[in-house]
Structure of Glutamate--tRNA ligase:
Amino acid sequence: MSTRTRFAPSPTGFIHLGNIRSALYPWAFARSTGGKFILRVEDTDVERSTQASVDVILEGMEWLGLDYDEGPFYQMQRMDRYKAVLADLQAAGHVYPCYMSIAELDALRERQTLAKEKPRYDGTWRPEPGKVLPPVPEGVKPVLRFLNPQGGVVAWDDKVKGRIEIANEELDDLVIARPDGTPTYNFCVVVDDIDMDITHVIRGDDHVNNTPRQINIFRALGKEPPVYAHLPTVLNEQGEKMSKRNGAKPVTAYRDEGFLPDAMVNYLARLGWSHGDDEIFSRAQFLEWFNLDHLGRSAAQYDEAKLRWVNAQHLKAMADESLAALVAVQLLKRDISADDRLARICGLFKDRCDTIVALADWAEKFYVEEVQASEAEYAQHVVPAVFPALATLGEKLASAEWNKPAIAAAIKETLAAHGMKMPQLAMPVRVLLMGTAHTPSLDAVIELTDRKIFSARLAKHQKC
């Protein structure tokens, strides 16, 4: 049977990097094994589920290139199927009605807590041979509980955590349908995984406690469970579980901040998986190397500085024309239309940038009328002593050909004429041209600057 994996997010808030990693690994496993990747939206929490959250999930996956083969399937659209399976389970004696009220449950748990016992349902309404059940209260709609097996253990070989065994006596009888008949999460998940022929469930380890319950439901339905791999938690930079409350950002925010999707895939892949000491790799290499045997067992910690470094490496490796297409989009957001200089501008500045937005910040300077330097930097470098040399350079370049060799020659002649060293001239020219004393090679920067804009900016010191 071919591999079939799934990503099953709950659309009750935006999807962050910790969530999307639970999509990356099943996607990669399906792609690396020639299988299928299914998207399933678990939207049964009607009060908290929103279309906006669904949209962020879909946008984030599309941006990262996590394409799915089937779906998206929505659980709320499958209610008739769940209820039909529930009826079959009830007819087979695996489900029973429970009339215990919430107040009674709360009182039971309070007594158990005071007695230092594990709070759990005590089986009051569980049918057993020779047992007399309490009278059915009038006007009370029951929940339906799953008749969990008694005795023995639930065991599975987790691809991350190894062998896990849970005694059935540790599991009480799970509510699998609410009083209004709506099936609950753990039951719906099992029906979905059966209907969708899921072979491998790769998900966060916050689901480990659900797994033995789900395995028992699988077996009550006459099915063997899939292979499980429970991924360790992703922590934020403060060492807390990554979450919206703890400052996590939507995945789409990284897109808007100028991160590259392949770099994000590279970084996320290393948050819980490794291939030797390889830090930087392409999407194709990742899919070639990926397997479940090298998933880590320890929690991974998000590090924005590391993410920016990874992004910078991918940015440097990109073709200038490809970068220019991305930067052009950023410039259009600023009402700037680029021209055929943009690819060369990207090639000149990409080694200095860690995001597309940072690269667009440099490119913008070539397309606006004026740039601003800080008062401190201007005062430090654009001093009266260099004004004569600035005038000489302006005169020489006014009639020179606009290419690097001619510009370099004009700079060299200016230095000789005034007995100056390169930094004494280059730094004030850079401040006037780009608003900073630190740029790539001066002749390359000047060549990419429009001649009229160059003349206007070089002469700016005369007005200050």
In short: The mean pLDDT is 94.
